[in-house]
Amino acid sequence: MREPNSELVQLLDQFLRHNWDGIKECVGLYFSPYTMTKDTLFVLDKLPGYPQISLFTGGSGQAFKFAPLLGKLLAELVLNQTPSVDLSPLSASRELDK
Predict the structure, then answer these.
(1) What span, in angstroms and rounded, lies between the C-alpha atoms of 40 and 43?
(2) Can you tell me the distance from the alpha carbon of 38 to that of 95, in angstroms, rounded to the nearest whole number?
(3) So what's the pLDDT on residue 10?
């Protein structure tokens, strides 16, 4: 696992403590690389073979821009409702079949 950029961590730490009261100095951190599918599209689907599991992955650092829509679609999956848009381009099987 890669180590986070210490200079960037220090800058972020200083910024947060300067701009928000009560923020303490960073005492630990975890580097979390984002996930990306080979075709760069999200995966938003039921896990094949496990219909009780709904999943979203492959946000590739861009999912936040689509959060309201993704939240709605994931809720529809979890509640076993018909998705309000065609999710076939985001199927889990397209990644599993490769």
Answers:
(1) 9
(2) 8
(3) 86
Residues 35/57, Cβ–Cβ less than 8 Å: yes
pLDDT averaged over the chain? 86
Instruction: Tell me phi and psi for residue 25, to 5 degrees.
Output: -65, 145
Helix H or strand E segment including 45: strand 43-47
Q: 56 pairs with which residues across the strands?
A: 44
Closest CA to 41 of 68, 60, 54, 65: 60
Alpha carbons 93 and 98: distance in angstroms, whole number: 9
Residue-wise pLDDT for 2-42, tens only, equals 677 888 888 888 888 888 888 877 777 777 677 778 888 88
Instruction: Say how far apart CA 30 and CA 4 lie, in whole Å.
Output: 8
12-30 burial by CB neighbour count: b if 16+ within 10 A, else e?
eeeeeeeeeeeeeeeeeee
